[in-house]
Amino acid sequence: MSESPPTHAAPMPKVLAFDVFGTVVDWYGSIVREVSERRLPVDPGQFAIAWRAGYRPAMARVRSGELGWTKIDDLHRMILDDILVKFGLDDMPEADRRDLNLAWHRLDPWPDAVEGLRRLRTKFTICTLSNGNLGLLADMAKRAGLPWDLILSAEVFRHYKPDPEAYLGVCDVFDVGPSDMMLVAAHQDDLAAARACGCRAAYVERRHEFGPTLPKDVSPDPANDFHATDFLDLARQLGC
Amino acid sequence: MSESPPTHAAPMPKVLAFDVFGTVVDWYGSIVREVSERRLPVDPGQFAIAWRAGYRPAMARVRSGELGWTKIDDLHRMILDDILVKFGLDDMPEADRRDLNLAWHRLDPWPDAVEGLRRLRTKFTICTLSNGNLGLLADMAKRAGLPWDLILSAEVFRHYKPDPEAYLGVCDVFDVGPSDMMLVAAHQDDLAAARACGCRAAYVERRHEFGPTLPKDVSPDPANDFHATDFLDLARQLGC
């Protein structure tokens, strides 16, 4: 998509809400790092992919009402216990499981993320809108130096994305209309759900979200308001 | 209270949760500033005291269930509309009322607050636990440079302090036991409610919370774990 679509003539949004896993931080590379540091006898990349693959089905059980409200920390732990069996690591002690599960609190940002956010923050209110729980996001932000104005989570709204309550919840927190909020994400389905609520949408390419050997389709969708190669490019397009 | 009560031998808490209005920021001086800047024909100090005086009764209506969940922004506005009549300013236009109501988003920190928080943050997870709403607290933090690890509010828990759900909600967010959380506040009733939940308590003197002419009783209560003259003193006592 061009850098000057018609929607750019619309007033700028006031609030940028960022998806986090994959958009701000590199979950794949970070889980590979954590697994490698422990010298677990598994392929770290396959382990990371398997752990992440359990994420949507687990959230779907909460979204459908099959499970009551359950934090991502607890969903990550349920998935971990499951994949440890599949990877032949079911003798891992409890303390090690607890520590490994906290790997999701220690995800590293993409190289452009901190500087990009710092620039965007000069002109916009920047917040998270993540399915990750508040404690996880706070630990991650402190470790990585992510300069959020506010950490928001599905945990606040008791609804996981893509439920509309999550996107509209951000608007309610800041007392703005949907068109004053723009979701920034590396996932087209997340952006489509935000647009369906009347919010604006900025796609960010994270070609290697699933690792260096599985490049993702990062084709533009003309329905989005912006398409950026990274946060520095987004900042430039938004005049920061 | 002495600086070395028996409880100091207990393990340090992990999370410091801060009351905000009066403890971190000077609501009295800031509302006086906002009213004075507008040259309203009222005594700015009396106006500030009257506005704040409506706060507890308004929250009590929410806590009792008489009012459904209502943000502080909306409670502040209800009180403002009420006191404008009492102060003979009921001809104030809607746009001016909206802007004046946002004065609570622009409260100034006490002089020691930013530096004290910066020090405390090196050793503890620091968060707010305020009855102020998230948008208010985020605007305040950005304007004043308050370096929170996480902004938490009664709005997240849908319970105003001193309901136990607020204090225990902080513990749940960080997945810690009550004794790992310490409330820092300039109000003994807030601290007493936290202690009743098993949390720890640090009192901070804010002698001039109600203005220079109405000094507050800042006597120590031996039931608290710490008693500090300001945040720098608290940081020193906590080894930061």
Write the layout of secondary structure elements.
The structure is a homodimer of 240-residue chains.
Chain A: E1 15-18, E2 25-26, H1 27-37, H2 44-53, H3 55-63, H4 72-86, H5 94-101, E3 108-109, H6 113-121, E4 125-130, H7 134-144, E5 150-153, H8 154-157, H9 164-174, E6 181-185, H10 188-196, E7 200-204, E8 226-228, H11 231-237
Parallel strand pairs in A: 1-4, 1-6, 4-5, 6-7, 7-8
Antiparallel strand pairs in A: 2-3
Helix pairs in contact in A: 1-2, 2-4, 6-11
Descriptive notes:
The structure is a homodimer. Chain A is an alpha/beta fold and about 240 residues long. The first copy, chain A, has two domains: about 150 residues, Rossmann fold (3-Layer(aba) Sandwich), CATH 3.40.50.1000; about 80 residues, Orthogonal Bundle (DNA polymerase, domain 1). Chain A is about 45% helix and about 15% strand. The first copy, chain A, contains eleven helices and eight strands. In chain A, the strands form two sheets. A six-stranded parallel beta sheet of chain A has the order 5-4-1-6-7-8, with helices on both faces. In chain A, helix 7 links the parallel strand 4 and strand 5. In chain A, helix 1 packs across helix 2, helix 2 crosses helix 4 and helix 6 packs parallel to helix 11. Chain A starts with 14 loop residues before the first strand and ends with a helix. The N terminus of chain A is likely disordered. At the A-B interface, helix 7 and strand 5 of A face helix 7 and strand 3 of B.
